[in-house]
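User: Hello, beginner here. Can you help me understand these amino acid letters and fold codes? It all follows right here:
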Amino acid sequence: AQMVPTTLALRTTSYLSQETEYMPWQSALNNLHYFDLMLDQTEVYQPMQEYIRKQVTPLFLYFKNMTSNWTKVPEKHTDQYNHVNALHTACRTGLTECQDLTCMWFKEWMDHPEHNPIHPNLRFAVYCSAVAAGGETEWNFTWSQFRMATVASEASKLMLALACSTNPQLLDRYLSDTLNPTMIRKQDATSVITAVASNRAGQSLAWDFVRDHWEYMFTEYGVGSFSFASLISGVTARFSTPADLQQLLDFMEKHKDAGFGSAALAVDQALERTKANIKWVHQNKQEVLHWFSSQTGNQQKIY
């Protein structure tokens, strides 16, 4: 409602370094996700990463201690959930100890593929972190495990983790695989493309891919197995600049005759959301940059 500055809300996260409960952490991560989407392609990204890493490090160490150096599973359900949050957030924001740990576990698995040493609760967080930190070898191993997986939940974790790569060539290859039903099942194609789009390194690749292949997807997949609505909202979630808005308008103009089928509402919503995002970034970016920078002692020059 613009009655108080956004940084007032951000200030409530400053106590997280003392917080070990699941609910406050989950709420904070859910809400910080919007800041991530809006600002992770800007100069705010680095100070924001540093700040969240600083806040999550005590939680990471708390669980390291609670689980006797990651050998046990917390007893409380909410602790099990927060255990995953701690690992995923610490690795994502670049805590070296976390990245070393997940890469070590993943390497153990690569050395003995028949025995996966990673606890099921932590698998997605570990896979994602290892694929992001790794190269083609880790990606190919994850791909082969995905192709062989017989348990649906395991296949799903591996499928989403493949989209965590920071290598554009691998992400491009993965996107292309969605056009081939023998590689990625038709009903999984949307999930793969939106997962790539949710990766900071993959968002523009996924959007270009959808634009390039829209007609093919639209005619080939029809309305049945393909969730066009979630596809559109997934690839446009980060849209927050006038250039993004123009690309979206061009896309709508180009395909207006064929229509958007089940995605018609999603396209309209994407347009509204992009306009709202542009306004939000314009109003808040400098202030948010200043705030994150001041919290980490990394005072950036404010223009």
Summary: DSSP finds 14 helices and no strands in the chain.
